[in-house]
Specification:
Length: 98
């Protein structure tokens, strides 16, 4: 699979949107975790969500608006999973040291 420049730009936009949404919800503030952290969380979430959606063959049937809706949903789901995993890891690490 060859990645084109347009696909990369779409990933950045979807990642930024997903990261911002999840950051706002998680931090309960408009800026979330900050511009670059939101982007990183969103990109990681897009990868995780995209893999999960393909693994479980989840198709939201959004057709022609697939890039702006289905990818965003997958990225948000993946970002939430990433944040929950990080939260659980931190909690586990704190309990283990005390």
């Amino acid at each position: 699979m060859q990645i084109t420049l347009s696909q990369f730009i779409v990933w950045l936009i979807v990642g930024a949107l997903a990261g911002s949404l999840v950051g706002m919800v998680a931090k309960r503030s408009r800026e979330g975790f900050g511009r670059w952290i939101n982007l990183a969380i969103g990109l990681a979430g897009a990868i995780i969500g995209g893999l999960l959606f393909r693994l479980f063959r989840i198709d939201l049937g959004l057709g022609s608006i697939q890039v702006s809706a289905e990818d965003l949903v997958a990225a948000v789901v993946g970002a939430v999973i990433l944040l929950l995993a990080l939260w659980g890891f931190r909690k586990y690490r704190r309990k283990r040291w005390f």
